[in-house]
Automatic annotation (TrEMBL):
Keyword presence, Kinase: no
GO MF, one example: hydrolase activity
Listed EC numbers: 3.1.1.-
Protein name from the UniProt record: Ala-tRNA(Pro) deacylase
């Protein structure tokens, strides 16, 4: 089932999207494979603390975050990974670790690795470990209004 906040956002904007139902997965790699989406097109959400405040970093599943580069890109802010206990309560309509990459729905900024912008379409977790959404990247960017950065590197 889609996160109610995500579902409302997509319907409110008459967005073009497709729901992908898949076997239960936990990692972005597993979800991409179960959804039949290339790793470069599956957008994983990494939860961060930027100067102590929650933020989302969204990048292709094939990449991993470089916290030093992110800190530099943000002007020297302290950037660290957020633990589940630090962010689980922020996503009351989602399973832990399956939040969609729309930070504004949850009161936090979203940073997107610009390599996602090169994809014609992306897929991402939709609030549960059995549902994903596929949509044109341009539509995602219009809705999420992320800050584009070049940060991640291949795992």
């Amino acid at each position: 089932m889609l996160s109610p906040r995500l579902h409302n956002l997509l319907d409110e904007h008459h967005s073009a999207y497709q729901t992908l139902v898949h076997d239960r997965t936990v990692t972005a790699h597993e979800t991409a494979a179960a959804s039949h989406v290339r790793q470069q097109q599956f957008a994983k959400t990494v939860m961060l603390k930027v100067d102590g405040k929650l933020a989302m970093m969204v990048m292709p599943a094939a990449y991993r975050i470089d916290l030093t580069r992110l800190s530099r890109a943000l002007g020297g802010d302290v950037v660290e990974l957020a633990g589940e206990t630090e962010f689980k309560d922020a996503f009351s309509d989602c399973e832990v670790g399956a939040m969609p990459p729309f930070g504004h729905l949850y009161g936090m900024p979203v940073y997107v690795d610009s390599r996602l912008a090169q994809q014609p379409e992306i897929a991402f977790n939709a609030g549960s470990h059995t549902d994903a959404v596929r949509m044109p990247y341009e539509e995602f960017e219009k809705l999420a209004q992320p800050e584009l950065l070049w940060l991640a590197h291949v795992m």
